[in-house]
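Support request, please re-run this one:
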Amino acid sequence: MAPPLEHGTHRSGTTRRSLLAGVAALGALGAAGCSRVATASSTEGGELLDRLKAAGVVRLGIAGEIPFGYIDTNGEMTGEAPELARVIFKRLGVDKVQPVPTEFGSLIPGLNSQQFDVVAAGMYVNPERCEQVIFSDPDYQMLDSFIVRKGNPKGLHDYKDVVEKKARFATGTGYAEIQYAVEAGYKESDILIVPDQVAGLNAVEAGRVDVFAGTALTTREVVKKSSKAEATKAFAPLVEGKPHVDGGAFAFRPTETNLRDAFNVELRKLKKSGELFRILKPFGFTEAEMTDLTAKELCGG
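Re-run finished. Output below.
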C-alpha cells in the first residue's frame, strides 16, 4: 500500500505507507526486543500465537487498498497481505483469518489497542513506525510512480519535477509519498490529500490536479481502464538525498516477538520455494518486486 509520513504504505504501500502512521495507542509498550517480566498471564515474547491457535482465528487489520488488502465485490477479504496471511497462519496452526477494516492511518493505533491481532495491509516499514510496532521481514519491495494525464504534458517523472514545474500534486491519506514530496521541496499544505488511488485517478482525469503519487503497483493497476490518464515509469524517491526502495510487511504489537519470529520462519520458507511470488503474482506483483530486504534494515537498525 502505497502506499512514510504510508501505500504506505501503501501501499504502500499498504497500503500501504506513511512515515507517521498515527499516534501510538495505549497498547504500544516499547520497541522490538524489549523484554517483559513474565506473569501468570504473560510470557516473554508474548502469548498471542498460542491464543490464536486455541481460538483458531486471527483478526487482520486491513485498510481497503487494492491490491494490498481489501473487501472484494463479493464481500470477501482478499489482497496480497490477507492471502499471504491465510497461508502462513495455516502453517502456524491458525485455520481462519477474519478481516477488520479500518482507515490506513488507524492501523497502528488499532493494532496497539487490540482491535485486531496483526496489520495485513502491505504497510511500508520505516523507522518512525518501528518505534510503535514490530514488523515481519518485507514480503515485497516497491518503487513510486505518478498518475498523470495521457502523454504526461507537464513532463513529470519524479518529485523534483513536481516542485520545479509547480504542478498541482495529490496523494493518499497517510501515504509515504507525502513526505517524499515535502523532502523534495513541495509545501505540505499545498498537497491535496485524497482517500486512495481511485480518487487520485479521478482528480487527475477531472483536471483538479496534475499528478497523483502512489506505489508503482497501485498506479499501473488503476490506470488500466482509463482513457485520460497513464502511469509514469517507476522511480526511487530520494530520502536524505539517496534513492530509497520501500518494503511492505506485516505489523505486530511490540510485545509479540514470538508470533513475529514464527511468522518470519514461514515467510522465509515461502521465499525460498518460490511460493511467495505465486501468491502475490495474481495481485499484479512482478518478480522484480520480490525482496530480500529485512525489517532491521528498513527500521534503520
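Confidence is low (pLDDT under 50) at residues 1-41. The radius of gyration is 18 Å.
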